[in-house]
Every structure is written in structure tokens, then in C-alpha cells.
From TrEMBL:
It is found in: Cytoplasm. Its cofactor is Fe(2+). Pfam families: TsaD. Its main location: cytoplasm. This is tRNA N6-adenosine threonylcarbamoyltransferase.
Length: 330
């Protein structure tokens, strides 16, 4: 089955050609350089850039895969969650292709795509637990079957990627904050102490307190006339954020029966988190642990194409009547 998949939920316009879960091409037109000037994603600008890019990216994906419209068996598209204007552009392109080529339309959940990106590195044996860490989501998800998801823990406030971006903004480091803090943290030392994150449920998350604690630390150092060591702040924040994630993961793994554990979402690219998940392999020998390659942690259409194979079998088919949703349950 040859699928053309479209992902446009945020600030990347991406199209992939995926054949039986093998990625033949995956084109990503990123808008990051434009949004950097605004210090974050500017939704209206994002939608306009998706419109400018989408046709060119579709064409590029076909050319790179050496396929034509006539070879396709289905069109897959991210239905949500995300920025509504951005999602609409991908959805309209997908509906147009499905209608004009008379092909089935497969709506895919963005987070399902992030989880399924792990199929690039291994197979899913159930029960499977996913740690989903992105700019909009921080949650623990259980899967007992293909394309069936149960959220067992989630953030009570900010997502971890959002906290990275906000802390970077407080420090005047630019956007997106995750990769910048990750890089600076590698040059930092354990000099500052940040408080532990507390949640009522041991597998829920919370990051807004940690973000505020960084702000308090900055104000305190300024008040006391000390120069702030930004690398050390990055180190302290990164270590506390990853420690918070790993504590929840370890607790959840000790209470749920799990055969496969996967890391998913943009923050899965974080070096310190990846090291910690690698170390987990030694501690939980009988659980198969999967971590996507760096390129597949980011938003791209290959993950939507891979998830589409199960979505097509197990979820209602799409039609030209379906809509995009900025909020959507998994
Ligand atoms: O999954 P994603 O590309 O978009 C959403 O679905 O939200 O995730 C983007 C998030 C941003 O908050 C970005 O700062 C964060 O992932 N991120 C990172 C790293 N690379 C990207 N956070 C920490 N360390 C990184 N290396
Ligand atoms: Zn994403």
C-alpha cells in the first residue's frame, strides 16, 4: 500500500511517501527562521507559509520517491491537534488529492504519529507504554492494541517543550528553546539548585513551577549583584526537567505490565533524556525500549504515513466532510 501523508499541524510543512511502513521520501519545509523573529510560532503567518509551501512539498516528495499520483493507494493527513489554520491547509490539500484521485482519506492523530515514529526502529509488542514529550503535550500513554491509546498520566499545566521554550525566552536565548538549552546545558555545571516538582498523582507532570523557579533564580542573582551563568541555569533546568520525566516513567513502569517502552515527540531529541532512556535499558532488561532517530522526533509526515496503516484498519475512514481539530483526544 502506497500512502502520501501530509503533516502541517504547526510550523513544518511536510509530505512523505510511505510504502508498507517503509519511508520512500519525507520532505520537510521548516518555517523556523521566519518564526524566530517573533520569538515563537505566529499562527497566521504559519498558515500562510503552509499555503505557499504545500504544492511544492507534495511535488518534491513524489519526485524523490520516484512515484506519481497514479501509483498512490491512499492519502493520510494530520487531523489534529495543532494550530487550526495550519491544520486546515494540510486537510484541504489532502481532501483535494483524495477527491480528485478517488482515493481513501486517512485522518491521523498527531501524537499517534509521534508514537508510531518508533516503528522505524523496532516493532510494537503490547502492552506498550509511550512517554510523549512535545511542545504541546507531556503524557504517558498505554497501548494494548494497534492504534488504541489510553492516557494514564499528563501534565497539569505546561508541556515540557513549552517549558523549555519559555525558559529560553526568559533567558533571552531565542526560539525554539529546547535545542538551545540542550546545547548550553552540556557546557554547564551543577551550580544552581531548583526545587523538585510535586504532583498529587505520581504519574502526572507539572512544569510551570519549574519555569517560575528559573525566573526566581534569575531575579535573586540580579538582586544580589551576581552575574548569571546561563550554561549553569540551562544545566539545572535540563537536569530537573529530565529527572521529573524519568521519575514518572520509573514509577509507571513499576506499576504497569509493559513489553515495549517508546519515547515520542520533539523533546525526544533531547540528549540528556535520550541518555537516561538508554540507561533505563540496563535497569529494565526485559522491556524492549525504542527511541526514534533524531530526524523522526521532529514534526514530519513520515510518522503520519506510518501510523496511517493502522489508522486505516482501525478507525473510521475519512471523507471530504471531515474537519481538522485544534484539540483532539488520542
Ligand atoms: O513535537 P514537536 O516538534 O512539536 C509539537 O508537536 O509540539 O516538539 C517541539 C518541541 C519544542 O518545544 C522544542 O523546543 C522541543 O520540542 N525540542 C527540544 C529539543 N528539540 C526540540 N526540547 C529539548 N531538547 C531538545 N533537543
Ligand atoms: Zn509534534
Amino acid at each position: 500500500m502506497l500512502i502520501l501523508a501530509i503533516e502541517s499541524s504547526c510550523d513544518e510543512t511536510s509530505v512523505a511517501i510511505v510504502e508498507d511502513e517503509n519511508v520512500l521520501s519525507n520532505i520537510v519545509a521548516t518555517q523556523i527562521d521566519v518564526h524566530k523573529e517573533f520569538g515563537g510560532v505566529f499562527p497566521e503567518v504559519a498558515s500562510r507559509l503552509h499555503i505557499e509551501n504545500i504544492n511544492f512539498v507534495i511535488k518534491e516528495a513524489l519526485v524523490k520517491s520516484e512515484k506519481t499520483f497514479a501509483d498512490l493507494d491512499a492519502i493520510a493527513v494530520t487531523q489534529g491537534p495543532g494550530l487550526i489554520g495550519s491544520l486546515h491547509v494540510g486537510m484541504m490539500a489532502a481532501k483535494t488529492l483524495a477527491w480528485s484521485l478517488d482515493l481513501p482519506l486517512i485522518p491521523v492523530h498527531h501524537i499517534a504519529g509521534h508514537i508510531y515514529a518508533n516503528k522505524l526502529v523496532g516493532s510494537f509488542e503490547y502492552p506498550l507504554m509511550a512517554l510523549v514529550v512535545s511542545g504541546g503535550h507531556t503524557e504517558l500513554v498505554m497501548m494494548y492494541n494497534d492504534y488504541e491509546f489510553e492516557v494514564i498520566g499528563k501534565t497539569q499545566d505546561d508541556a515540557v517543550g513549552e517549558a523549555y521554550d519559555k525558559v529560553a525566552r526568559q533567558l533571552g536565548l531565542g526560539y525554539p528553546g529546547g535545542p538551545i538549552i540542550d546545547k548550553l546545558a552540556k557546557q554547564g555545571q551543577p551550580h544552581y539548585t531548583l526545587p523538585n516538582v510535586k504532583t498529587e498523582n505520581p504519574i502526572d507532570f507539572s512544569f510551570s513551577g519549574l519555569k517560575s523557579a528559573v525566573r526566581q533564580l534569575m531575579l535573586r542573582e540580579a538582586r544580589e549583584g551576581r552575574e548569571l551563568n546561563v550554561n549553569d541555569v540551562a544545566y539545572a533546568f535540563q537536569h530537573k526537567a529530565v529527572e521529573t520525566l524519568m521519575k514518572r516513567v520509573k514509577h509507571a513502569l513499576s506499576t504497569y505490565d509493559v513489553k515495549t517502552f517508546v519515547l515520542a515527540g520533539g523533546v525526544a531529541a533531547n540528549a540528556h533524556l535520550r541518555e537516561n532512556v538508554e540507561a533505563l535499558k540496563q535497569q529494565v532488561g526485559d522491556i524492549n525500549i525504542l527511541v526514534p532517530p533524531l530526524w523522526a522526533c521532529m514534526d514530519q509526515a513520515a510518522m503520519i504515513g506510518i501510523a496511517a496503516f493502522d489508522a486505516a484498519r482501525l478507525r473510521p475512514a475519512g471523507s471530504c466532510d471531515i474537519s481538522s481539530f485544534s484539540n483532539m483526544t488520542l
